[in-house]
Amino acid sequence: MSRIDVADMDGVRVAHTNFSTDSRGVFFKYHPDELLQSRLGSVAISINSTIGTIRGIHFQVEPYAEEKIVSCIQGSILEVIVDLRPGSKSLGKIATFKLEQSSAKQVYLPKGIAHGFQTLQSDTIVQYFLTSEYSPHHSYAINPFGQLGVDWPIRDFLVSEKDAGGISLSLAQSKYAESILSE
Torsion over CA of 162, 37, 119 and 76, rounded to 10 degrees? Predict the structure, then answer.
């Protein structure tokens, strides 16, 4: 599987967040409208108590395809993104990188970028800003252990049956492309 740096993934942007620290803790301030091309549809929080938890690799097809801003607001994760967009210069490519509370980075993912992560610490919290609502009939998972060849750093992992039984990358690309054509 072809891997690239996150900076080379077509349309993906990593942004640094303003934060301050004092004896009370940390205060983050986000401006999702500066990164999103569409209006904000929802905010989601993923609370993961177990180190090694794998979530994803998820995407939604049109008309529920979504832009996302992903932040790790507690702990750290290995973020995994895959480009499913026909005509993209990074189609079929994978980027992996860390998101962690201490760096206060957030990543913008355009429509057609599948996303997943593995927690690198216990009690990790991931926050999402999304431009679309969840639609189970338009939502898919790519098998995180199949042809993607992701080197998950924590071998003692926890993953859902749905995610472990996800579809292949080629089928994911086909489903996303078909959804664009029918739009």
Answer: 180
> What is the token pair recorded at 118?
């593995």
Are 64 and 133 in contact by the 8 Å Cβ rule? The answer is: yes
Predicted TM-score (pTM) of this structure = 0.86
Q: What is the pLDDT of residues 134-148, one digit of tens each?
A: 999 999 999 999 889
Handedness of CA 16, 135, 57, 50 (dihedral sign): positive
The yes-or-no answer on residue 128 being catalytic is: yes
Active site residue 16: no
Distance CA 74, CA 76 (A): 7
Q: Are 116 and 80 in contact (CB under 8 A)?
A: yes
- Exactly one of 64, 108, 128, 176 is catalytic; name it: 128
Largest CA distance in the chain: 54
Please name the residue ranges forming H helices in the chain. 161-164, 169-181
Tokens encoding 2:
């072809």
**6-181: which CATH number, 2.40.30.60, 2.60.120.10, 1.10.150.170, 3.30.390.50?**
2.60.120.10
